[in-house]
Amino acid sequence: MNFDPNRYPRPPQVPKGFIALGVVLVALVLLALLSNPFVVIPSGYVGVKLTLGKASPDELSPGLHLIVPFIQRTEKMSVRTHSYDLTGLNSINALSKDGLTINVELTTLYKIMPDKAAEIFIEYGLAYEDRIIKPVIRSAVRDVISTLDSAQVYQERSMIQQSIARQVRNELEKRFILLDEILIRDIRLPQKVVEAIEQKRRALEEAQRMKFLVEKEKLEAERRKIEAQGIAEANKIIAGSLTKEYLMWKFLENIKSYAESGNNTIILIPYDTKMTPIIQLPEMKKK
């Protein structure tokens, strides 16, 4: 049996251009899936989306987001509380009011405003600690220390910490960063200055102690004076109420009580010559 090609029509031919386009589309889809067009922003972070290097002003909240591979990417920025230390080689040297060098070490607790993360990234990038926080703190420390002499710096640590925190807080808020707390870890003065301050403090404490003792003695002397005056007044009143007859009667009453006592053998009455001594002899026991 002979095959007649005209009897059965051929299926329509697909243009080679369409086939190539389909292959390209499939390849792009596979490439997109393999390049992971999804990004996850974890809790405690916000995302800054960059399209061809340009940052979007709208932050990406925590969750799943879709981006265009090779065209868009994201930078994750933490909005949790961070600590930034200025210690050791990064500690701050400041001049006091009396021209002495004071070394200060501290820790800063801060966090960025979640709805301003994109602006921080656009303005300062990810290195905002060195570009914002560090210079602001250094400036505040030097401003505060410059208003105090070395003795105040040595004694007023709490006040210094509060003053620095107040100034730093105002400056950082202008740059969309929230200050939680400034913690001063150490304040170091020249050793000779510390010794002089300690010696002065001990001398002041000794002076205060001596002043207290002097005041105490004054009060004690005043008390004794008042007590003596009271005794003198009482004696004056008593003396004014005594008469010769009363004294004689009282004297005889006392003599009588002595005479009646079984412990006395002789009682001498030291009085004027008109009085006769009373002699009480114990009875002799009969043998």
Summarize it.
47% of the residues lie in helices and 22% in strands.
Which helices and strands appear, and what pairs or packs with what?
Blueprint: H1 16-34, E1 38-41, E2 45-51, E3 54-60, E4 63-66, E5 72-78, E6 82-86, E7 92-95, E8 101-112, H2 117-124, H3 128-145, H4 150-155, H5 157-173, E9 177-188, H6 191-241, H7 244-259
Antiparallel strand pairs: 1-4, 2-3, 2-5, 6-8, 7-8, 8-9
Model regions low in confidence, pLDDT < 50 over at least 5 residues: 275-281
Contiguous helical run count: 7
CATH-scheme architecture of the domain at 82-189: 2-Layer Sandwich
CATH superfamily of the domain at 82-189: Band 7 domain
Order of helices and strands: HEEEEEEEEHHHHEHH
Number of strands: 9
Main pleated sheet = 4 strands, antiparallel
Q: Percent helix among the residues?
A: 40-55%
Tell me about this structure.
- This protein has 287 residues and is an alpha+beta fold.
- Among the domains are: 41 residues, no CATH class; 108 residues, 2-Layer Sandwich (Tetrahydropterin Synthase, Chain A), CATH 3.30.479.30; 38 residues.
- Helix content is 47%, strand content 22%.
- The chain contains 7 helices and 9 strands.
- Strands 6, 7, 8 and 9 form a 4-stranded antiparallel beta sheet that branches.
- A hairpin with a 5-residue loop joins strand 7 and strand 8.
- The radius of gyration is 51 Å and the shape is rod-shaped.
- The chain starts with 15 loop residues before the first helix and ends in a 28-residue tail after the last helix.
- InterPro entries: Band_7, Band_7/SPFH_dom_sf, Prohibitin.
